[in-house]
TrEMBL record:
Record key words, sorted: Endoplasmic reticulum, Iron, Membrane, Oxidoreductase, Transmembrane, Transmembrane helix
Coiled coil: none
Top-level taxon: Eukaryota
Cofactor(s), names only, from the UniProt record: Fe cation
Organism: Cynoglossus semilaevis (Tongue sole)
Gene Ontology molecular function, alphabetical: glyceryl-ether monooxygenase activity
UniProt xrefs under InterPro entries: AGMP_C (IPR056853), Sterol_desaturase/TMEM195 (IPR051689)
UniProt membrane topology term: Multi-pass membrane protein
BP GO annotations: membrane lipid metabolic process
Phylogenetic lineage: Eukaryota, Metazoa, Chordata, Craniata, Vertebrata
The Alkylglycerol monooxygenase C-terminal domain, residue ranges: 209-295
Protein name: Alkylglycerol monooxygenase
Length: 313
């Protein structure tokens, strides 16, 4: 009965059995994350729909939802370029320095690995919250990017006030409120207090632009999934170009959400890039019948959107 449920759905809930998810070679391992991505997006849409029908309001603002999903997409893009290097390095170390070889088809090996990897991720994640240095692949939302830049500029300036080289390094490795003489995580009593009355950032933008952003996000999500499915059949140059297009799209949509003054020009540029890539067959339409509308429709829709945006109340 369990095997009748698609692998993409079951991988979301850790419902893959040891027998079906144990492999002798690296090449045999499926792309579980990318199999699960469409179902993940579908469940999010279902949650939004149920919340809308139940309360009459969106449970998650579109701006927050798009930004969070965009960050998830961006966090996986580096694997298009470095995953093979990562696996090669792992195999190299294992071939030369492993202490014991566990049977790959043993359920005990599967459970030991499952718990070990999960524990490793836990400690890496916990460590990242205790330091000023946290891994940012790319922050898609404009406001978060600007905040990050200003924050690290602040850390850099603060590190320069210390004479000891060790303290300069610890400024980035220890907690945000750390100063010499304080515990590793710093003194939290001096931090701003959270009162619960803080107003969440929720920009006001027209319904048309919200629909426009959602539709184009879904299109780039399809491009993202397709790129992972075909990465072994295209050149590295093509992969780099498509990564650039995805980043450009997510950045442009972020500009629209934040209503940046340069959003219109950036989006027009993105539409031109999208049409060019489509002409070369790198961007696929969801349906063949949408090929022509997509080529010119994006620019026309954005022009209408700009009119609505300019004349919004």
């Amino acid at each position: 009965m369990l095997s009748s449920v698609p692998t993409g759905i079951r991988s979301l809930f850790f419902m893959l059995t040891p027998n079906e998810s144990s492999f002798k070679t690296v090449e045999e391992v499926p792309e579980y994350v990318h199999q699960a991505t469409p179902y993940f997006a579908g469940l999010i849409l279902l949650e939004v729909l149920v919340g809308l029908l139940k309360s009459g309001e969106l449970v998650v603002p579109i701006s927050d939802g798009i930004t969070s999903l965009s960050m998830g997409i961006v966090s996986k893009l580096p694997f298009l370029l470095i995953k093979s290097l990562e696996l090669t390095a792992y195999v190299f170390v294992w071939d030369r320095y492993h202490l014991v070889e566990l049977p790959w088809d043993s359920a005990w090996t599967w459970w030991f690995t499952f718990l070990g990897v999960d524990l490793g991720y836990y400690w890496v994640h916990r460590f990242s919250h205790g330091t000023n240095y946290t891994h940012y692949s790319i922050i898609v939302s404009t406001r978060e990017l600007i905040t990050s830049i200003h924050y690290y500029r602040h850390l850099w300036k603060r590190s320069r006030t210390y004479k000891a080289f060790g303290n300069k390094i610890l400024t980035f490795l220890n907690g945000p409120s750390w100063t010499p003489g304080k515990p590793r995580l710093g003194d939290h009593t001096a931090n701003p207090k959270v009162t619960g009355k803080e107003v969440a950032y929720n920009p006001s933008w027209s319904l048309f632009l919200q629909v426009y952003v959602v539709l184009h996000f879904l299109l780039v999500l399809g491009t993202y999934v397709h790129l992972f499915e075909t990465k072994m059949m295209v050149s590295q140059l093509t992969v780099l170009g498509m990564i650039g297009y995805i980043l450009l799209t997510l950045t442009s949509l972020g500009f629209i959400i934040d209503q940046r003054p340069s959003a219109a020009m950036l989006e027009m540029l993105r539409c031109v890039v999208m049409m060019t890539l489509q002409n070369f067959g790198h961007v696929k339409s969801p349906l063949p019948s949408l090929t022509v509308p997509m080529e010119g429709g994006s620019t026309i829709l954005w022009s209408i959107g700009q009119h609505i945006w300019t004349h919004r109340s």
